Amino acid sequence: MKIEEKEKNEISVRVDNVDDLWYLKNVIRPGDLVFGTVFRKEQRSSDSLRAKKTARKRMRLGIHVEKVEFQEFADRLRISGVIKAGPEDVLGLHQTINVGVGDEISIVKDSWSREERDLLDEAVKNAEKPQVYFLGLEHGLATIAVLRAYGVQEIASIRKRGDEDEEFFGEVLAAIKDIRDENAPLIILGPGFYKENFVNFAKGELKNFVVMQASHGDMRGVHEVLKSSLHKILSDTRMAREEKLVDRLLEEIKKEGLYAYGPKEVEKYLNMGAVETLLVTDRNYRKYENLMRLARDTAAEVHIISTAHEKGKILESLGGIAAILRFRD
Question: pTM of the prediction?
Answer without folding.
Answer: 0.78
